[in-house]
Design brief:
CATH architecture of the largest domain: 3-Layer(bba) Sandwich
Structural class: alpha+beta
Number of domains: 2
Number of helices: 13
Keywords: FAD, Flavoprotein
Oligomer: single chain
Radius of gyration: 24 Å
Bound molecules: flavin-adenine dinucleotide
Pfam families: HI0933_like, HI0933_like_1st
Strand order of the largest sheet: 12-15-14-13-16-17
CATH superfamily of the largest domain: FAD/NAD(P)-binding domain
Cofactor: FAD
Distance between the termini: 13 Å
Protein name: TIGR03862 family flavoprotein
Shape: elongated
Largest sheet: 6 strands, antiparallel, barrel
Length: 421
């Protein structure tokens, strides 16, 4: 096959992985990105320990994509957790499996991986054009870009978009592409916060002084799921642009609620609220709690008594008060401690979310990740309408769809459906 010119927009993991594949197949690849340097979100992800993927069995892993599983299954099965680890090792970044089953590079950070990766891409002849912002796609093989030298039109034999979602806009992916005039509204699910905090409804005015206070250990139950982990009380500002309504400014965020953020968000969209249940002593049975509570002295204040008997911190007592303590009868109190209801009324702001739900819908793309109404334009990564919890599923999904879209693009070029330019 003759070598062609492929334009990739978005130098995050999905775009760069597609670039590696397409350049390895012998094509000339240019990657455009609006930021001054590539892979900013990936580098940020590495700050707290880069969780590349997860070691659980593939069928369990695939279930984390929930409704999007049928869509992503082939891509993740083709380029799965072991392949991603082997790829990282090929860049001099071997991985290890943490006690939770999560997989990290031994260096923990993303920077050594990104450095080695950019060197490899350079060796493959991939050209990186930074500070190039894609304004729109006037025709299938054309890009209108805002560049340091002013506005430019660029032509390419095929285009791959990997523009990311809409959170942490300062790292590059600002979701502006969702407002392009050429995109049919039907092809797009509105962007929404995923792996995010939620505003609580407060009847008593939940004390703002608890903002930043962790709640652990804790288990969060919602619908038929229960996640054990950690929460932190957070305070959402009331500035313009922050989504959501709510009586108070306080909310909850943290791993235990992130994992349930999809079902919680959908319940709020449907019913205007979602009631989660917190187990404030997940390591103790209700019977054991009841036994401890039976020893409380009736004269003592509830906070003091709970602190002494169960080492329950003041923030947990504030949550109990919010729920309305029924009485001090040990059985009733024990039952409440195992399932404190908390009413959530809105997701936190999209920009503060770890990831984004919504984006290009499955129906808008063919099985090779090509936009059905834009022959020769492919899409991958977080800009597609899927979501997953933290735990490595996000990056795995971005790498896997980056590869699948690159393969779709290569097949399309091979089929010769576009005349050589
Ligand atoms: C704080 C934080 C920690 C995270 N930690 C983890 C983790 O440990 N494990 C995990 O699996 N996931 C993690 N994630 C999520 C993960 O980083 C993202 O899912 C992933 O980076 C998305 O990859 P992407 O290539 O689709 O998009 P991005 O990485 O967002 O890249 C998109 C690129 O497109 C560019 N772009 C956007 N619009 C335009 C335009 N119009 N023109 C030109 N360029 C444009 C942007 O500048 C950006 O460089 C974390 C996210 C955050 C915010």
């Amino acid at each position: 096959m003759t070598s062609r010119h492929v334009a990739i927009v978005g130098a995050g993991p999905a775009g760069l992985f597609a670039a590696e594949r397409i350049a390895s197949a012998g094509h000339r690849v240019t990657v455009f990105d609006r930021m001054p340097s590539p892979a900013r979100k990936l580098l940020m992800a590495g700050r707290g320990g880069l969780n590349l993927t997860h070691s659980e069995p593939l069928p369990v892993f695939l279930d984390r994509y929930r409704d999007a599983r049928p869509w992503l299954e082939a891509a993740v099965a083709t380029f799965g957790p072991s392949a991603l680890q082997a790829w990282a090792a090929s860049l001099g970044q071997p991985c290890f499996i943490g006690s939770s089953g999560r997989v990290f590079p031994e260096a923990m950070k993303a920077s050594p991986l990104v450095r080695a990766w950019l060197k490899r891409l350079d060796g493959l002849g991939v050209a990186l054009r930074m500070r190039y912002r894609l304004l729109e796609l006037p025709g299938s093989g054309h890009l209108r870009l805002d560049t340091p030298e002013g506005e430019r039109f660029v032509g390419a034999d095929a285009v791959l978009l990997a523009l990311g979602g809409g959170s942490w806009a300062r790292l590059g992916s600002d979701g502006a592409w969702t407002r392009w005039s050429g995109l049919s509204p039907a092809s797009l699910a509105p962007l929404a916060a995923a792996n995010c905090g939620f505003r609580m409804q407060s009847t008593t005015g939940f004390p703002a002084r608890y903002a930043g206070t962790p709640i652990k250990p804790v288990a969060v139950a919602f619908e038929n799921e229960r996640v054990r982990g950690e929460l932190v009380v957070t305070r959402f500002g009331s500035s313009a642009g922050e989504t959501g309504v709510g009586d108070g400014e306080c909310g909850l965020e943290g791993g235990a609620i992130y994992a349930l953020s999809g079902p919680i968000r959908r319940a709020i969209e449907r019913d205007g609220r979602a009631v989660i249940r917190l187990d404030l002593r997940p390591g103790m049975s209700e019977a054991a709690l009841c036994e401890r509570l039976a020893r409380l002295r009736p004269r003592e204040s509830l906070s003091n008594a709970l602190r002494k008997a169960l080492r329950l911190p003041p923030v947990a007592v504030a949550l109990l008060r919010e729920a309305g303590v029924p009485d001090r009868a040990p059985a009733a109190l024990a039952a409440l401690l195992k399932a404190v209801p908390v009413v959530l009324v809105a997701p936190g702001p999209l920009d503060r979310a770890i990831s984004t739900a919504g984006g290009l819908r499955r129906e808008a793309l063919d099985p090779g990740f090509m936009l059905r109404d834009r022959p020769g334009v492919f899409a991958a990564g977080e800009m597609l309408d899927w979501e997953a919890p933290t735990g490595g599923y996000l990056l795995q999904g971005c790498f896997a769809t980056g590869l699948a879209a690159a393969d779709g693009l290569l097949d399309w070029l091979r089929a010769g459906l576009n005349p050589p330019r």
